């Protein structure tokens, strides 16, 4: 039995939260996944933010699904992710922050990909600072979606440039040949 080249190419999977991150980080993440470290306290803060937001949705009697697995199949690869909360008309992505700020292009791109994958027009980035929430509402953007696909197309083509401003936060800085 022959395997279609299209099926082989689609076996390449990128994660929605990688959109607009340092391309070289993505290269290292796919090549050396075991070297990436996320501090346990960061995971714990993220889980706490999601738990607190779940309480808000329940108190407001809003029906939701959580940690919804999503995927978008492009010509040569698949983008997948897990939306934190999906309601009948909105996707919520919850982020723990030290202080409230304008959402990054990475966060907006991630949420926009989830909107495309669910067919919803409205989403929210919900920031939690440990005491309170701030909601940043967004609408689906075709332009941002096209930019996201172009980003992953570039990654898929094997062009990995480094974003020097990202180096100081990078979990791969200890092995990165592009570090400044």
Query: What class, by secondary structure content?
Result: alpha/beta
CATH class: Alpha Beta
- The dominant shape is globular
Largest sheet: 6 strands, mixed
State the low-pLDDT regions, or none: 1-9
Instruction: Tell me how many strands there are.
Output: 6
Domain unit count: 1
List the total number of helices.
5
Mean pLDDT: 89
H and E order: HEHHEEEHEEH
Radius of gyration: 17 Å
Beta percentage is 15-25%
In the CATH classification, which architecture applies?
Alpha-Beta Complex
Distance between the termini: 49 Å
Brief account:
Helices cover 36% and strands 23% of the residues. By secondary structure, the protein is α/β, with parallel strands linked by helices.
Protein described:
The chain has 180 residues and is an alpha/beta fold. The chain has a single domain (5-158), classed as Lambda Exonuclease, Chain A, CATH 3.90.320. Helix content is 36%, strand content 23%. It has five helices and six strands. A hairpin with a 4-residue loop joins strand 2 and strand 3. The longest helix has 20 residues, at 40-59. It starts with a helix and ends in a 24-residue tail after the last helix. Residues 1-9 have low confidence and may be disordered.
Question: What layout of secondary structure does this protein have?
Answer:
Layout: H1 5-10, E1 13-15, H2 23-31, H3 40-59, E2 65-73, E3 78-86, E4 90-96, H4 105-118, E5 122-128, E6 133-139, H5 142-156
Parallel strand pairs: 1-3, 4-5
Antiparallel strand pairs: 2-3, 3-4, 5-6
């Amino acid at each position: 039995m022959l395997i279609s080249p299209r099926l082989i190419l689609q076996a390449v999977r990128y994660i929605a939260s990688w959109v607009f991150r340092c391309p070289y980080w993505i290269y290292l993440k796919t090549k050396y996944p075991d070297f990436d470290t996320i501090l346990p306290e960061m995971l714990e803060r993220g889980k706490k933010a999601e738990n607190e937001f779940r309480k808000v949705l329940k108190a407001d009697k809003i029906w939701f699904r959580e940690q919804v697995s999503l995927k978008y199949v492009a010509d040569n690869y698949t983008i997948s992710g897990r939306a934190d909360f999906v309601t009948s008309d909105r996707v919520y992505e919850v982020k723990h922050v030290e202080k409230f700020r304008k959402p990054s292009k990475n966060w907006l791109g991630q949420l926009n990909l989830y909107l495309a994958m669910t067919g919803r027009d409205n989403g929210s980035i919900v920031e939690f600072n440990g005491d309170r929430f701030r909601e940043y509402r967004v609408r689906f953007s075709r332009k941002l979606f096209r930019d996201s696909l172009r980003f992953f197309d570039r990654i898929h083509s094997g062009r990995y440039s480094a974003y020097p401003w990202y180096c100081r936060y990078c979990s791969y800085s200890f092995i990165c040949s592009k570090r400044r």
